[in-house]
Amino acid sequence: MIHWGFIGCGDVTEKKSGPAFSKVEGSDVVAVMRRNIDKAKDYAQRHGIGKWYNNALDLINDPQVNAVYVATPPGSHAEYAIAAMKAGKPVYVEKPMAASYEECLQMNRVSAETSIPCFVAYYRRTLPYFLRVKQLIDDDLLGKISTVQIRFSIPPYATDNDRSNLSWRVKKEIAGAGYFYDLASHQFDLLDYLFGEISDVHGFAANVGGLYDVEDTVTAAFRFQSGMLGSGSWSFIAPKDTRTDRIDIIGTKGKLSFSTFDFSPILLESSEGTQELREENPENIQYYLIQSVVNYLNGGSILPLSTGTTAIRTNHVMDRILGKI
């Protein structure tokens, strides 16, 4: 039985992830931690969890906790994950894996030294929507694929207009970079899952709007080890009421278009016309990945699809694009 302790119990744990740890067979949640003890207690009591802490090491050292979910902003992922692994407890870390590629290296080094696994919450690898995308590619419906193109643009969030109330997602010391680091990480991990490792990448980042200190506009060109080419553009200062969330995969026999976050219908264009495909995702969107992690930790032989070994590649790509390495 896997008895989880949560380090961090904010918004992501309310529905996306938290409930799944109790719904999956062979798993439960026995403790949570948040620096604000009143908020930790409130979360625990609302979710039927027996213990709450305001110190991460107290949770890690709780003898009842035998696995740790790190659900804090990226700036503290490495610190908490390394402490848990050194205590002999497997970790499931929110994405991106850490605030920098260097911190990911440190995490993987400790995982190797302790033989304690580290998993990362890139749950799109397990969602029916993206598994359908992968099936269409694997079934050769697109032919030889020449390129993949990411286009993403959203208007500023309400908090972006208030320098005194900025989201942690645009504070480099907490997030690693800006919204690009938070959102594009899902896209690059997904492409890694679909097409393998990106071997070469070049990018440019700018701050056009001046709403905060990190990048708000990014472009990139990249090449996979297979030789396939890709490109992307991201804007977080688009006009009000406009939004683009699209990935296009173009092959010699067809084109596949889908979204990363909106889960709009998958479009397959070919000589036979255009097909519109839909897939339902679970209520708790991380459920299937968490289920695979729990099954593995309970003695299963199938390694979950998202580990420190796969997730570090996304941090490497993003750090290259942003000029951090």
The rounded distance between the terminal residues' Cα atoms is 41 Å
Order of helices and strands: EHHEHEHEHEHEHEHHEEEEEEEHH
CATH topology (level 3) name of the largest domain: Dihydrodipicolinate Reductase, domain 2
Category from helices, strands and their pairing = alpha/beta
- CATH class identity of the largest domain: Alpha Beta
Radius of gyration: 20 Å
**Apparent shape:** globular
**Domains, number:** 2
Mean pLDDT: 97
Let me know the CATH homologous superfamily of the largest domain.
Dihydrodipicolinate Reductase, domain 2
Provide a count of the helices.
11
Largest sheet composition: 8 strands, mixed
CATH architecture of the largest domain: 2-Layer Sandwich
Topology, number of strands: 14
Low-pLDDT ranges: none
Helix % is 25-40%
The amount of beta strand, in percent, is: 25-35%
Describe the structure.
This protein has 2 domains: 2-124 and 285-306, 3-Layer(aba) Sandwich (Rossmann fold); 128-280, Dihydrodipicolinate Reductase, domain 2 (2-Layer Sandwich). Helix 6 (101-114) packs antiparallel against helix 11 (308-321). By secondary structure, the chain is α/β, with parallel strands linked by helices. The protein is 33% helix and 25% strand. The strands form 2 sheets. The protein has an 8-stranded mixed beta sheet with strand order 8-9-10-7-11-12-13-14, covered by helices on one side. A 6-stranded parallel beta sheet has the order 3-2-1-4-5-6, with helices on both faces.
